Amino acid sequence: MATTFDSNVLTMNGVAQPFDYYCVLDFEAVCHQANPGSKRFSPNDIWEIIEFPICLLEAKTNTIIDIYHSYVRPTIQPRLNDICIGITGITQDIVDNSPTFDIVWNDVQKFLVKHSLISLTENKSNLYSFTWITCGNWDLKTMLPLQLKHSGFDRPTFINNFINLKDLYMEYYPSSRIRGMKDMLKKSNLILEGKHHSGIDDTKNITKIAQWLIQNNKILKLTYRAIK
């Protein structure tokens, strides 16, 4: 039987998880420093998302039921730097032949609408409950709001709350020394697949950790709520 979280969103999973779906993501972004070579970030640095991946994890079945993935062409500073290319493996040709963020963001919203996670109309009935999973606070607390501002979009409420899987993992396993995704994979006896710092590969690996937690009867609960 469905349990109601509010008047519009129904939770149907029946497996003790607080959300029906989890949108797992891990951005890749390019940074052009105002002071090149500095070890400190500056408010004048230019950051832009260049890869936007989502794995849609269904709580009821603990499986990935869909994937959204797109590279993104930066517009403020269209040229990637060597540091970014070396870390991410994303080349200039890839982003030059990719859509700009405004197109990608519209496609992301269509992806969420397709799975009845959000509605872009006044009809908010029969939406499934969902939240985001990231490895760290940066993706949704800092980078996406910054990119939305750059691109002239308002910040939607559906990105306000999320799960920082690193924080949640350390809550459940406080004796673990967790610096990031690779440590969680190792602690969970999971294999890192693909290339670290490939957005889509990291997203799939973070999803594996979330699935492992569900398999081990851990509740995937919010760790961050934006101040309204």
Automatic annotation (TrEMBL):
It comes from Adineta steineri. It comes from the Eukaryota. Pfam families: RNase_T. Residues 21-219 form the Exonuclease domain. This is Exonuclease domain-containing protein. Keywords: Exonuclease, Hydrolase, Nuclease. The lineage of its organism: Eukaryota, Metazoa, Spiralia, Gnathifera, Rotifera. Signal peptide: none annotated. One of its GO terms (molecular function) is nucleic acid binding. The keyword rRNA-binding does not apply.
